Amino acid sequence: MVLLSGGIDSATTLAFAKKMDMETYALSFRYGQRHAVELEAAKRIAQHFNCFEHLIADIDLRIIGGSALTAEIDVPKKRDLHDLSKKIPVTYVPARNAIFLSYALAWAEVIGSTDIFIGVNAVDFSGYPDCRPEFIKAFENMANLATKASVEEDKRVKIHAPLIAMSKAQIIQKGISLGVDYSFTHSCYDPSAEGLACGECDSCLLRLAGFRTAGIKDPIQYK
């Protein structure tokens, strides 16, 4: 079970799961995000890696709001990379990874899976609290108390976060070695009407810096 947003990290995480010779199921979300174009990227990636099934769940986090990704709040642009992790930015979506992992846990139990993969990263990231090792460990502990499979059948759930201690450049280099085609991916929080990346939001800046450090040209187009 792989959470697949359509970005660099989730695509690379899916490649990790495939490398472990697992039958992969991909789960994406249409949650009211302003960058819903990422779902087209997720479809391309799931097809590229021959996922057994790719499910897109519809949930509307706009009813909650509180984020520049789900409400009428401007996406920050042209921030200094060194400032990104100092304060949780307005692009943080309240409890998003907890919500996504809960859906993944439910579907994993239905199909009999005990392995859930998520592409969180605690090195080159925007300061989100739900991308940290403490959160992943706590959710795994909760997951093993929350399902029939774990309580009655002793099927222990494992939350895999293979990228959590890697830099963006290391992720890109590893992904290329695992066969990821990054031209399929989308990272921008505020794309143009044509779906082109802005090149100025936090996510674009982290992506561009990662490719630059890795010494590899970013294959996507920017407006």
Describe the structure in your own words.
With 223 residues, this protein is mainly alpha-helical. The protein has one domain (2-214): Rossmann fold, CATH 3.40.50.620. 36% of the residues lie in helices and 9% in strands. The protein contains seven helices and five strands; from the N terminus they run E-H-E-H-E-H-E-H-H-E-H-H. The protein has a three-stranded parallel beta sheet with strand order 1-2-3, sandwiched between helices. Strand 2, helix 2 (38-48) and strand 3 form a beta-alpha-beta unit. The longest helix has 16 residues, at 96-111. The radius of gyration is 17 Å and the shape is globular. The mean pLDDT is 95.
* Counted beta strands: 5
Gross morphology = globular
Structural class: mainly alpha
CATH architecture: 3-Layer(aba) Sandwich
CATH topology: Rossmann fold
Number of helices: 7
Indicate the topology.
Elements: E1 2-3, H1 8-19, E2 25-30, H2 38-48, E3 53-58, H3 96-111, E4 115-117, H4 133-146, H5 148-152, E5 158-160, H6 168-177, H7 202-214
Parallel strand pairs: 1-2, 2-3, 4-5
Helix pairs in contact: 1-6, 6-7
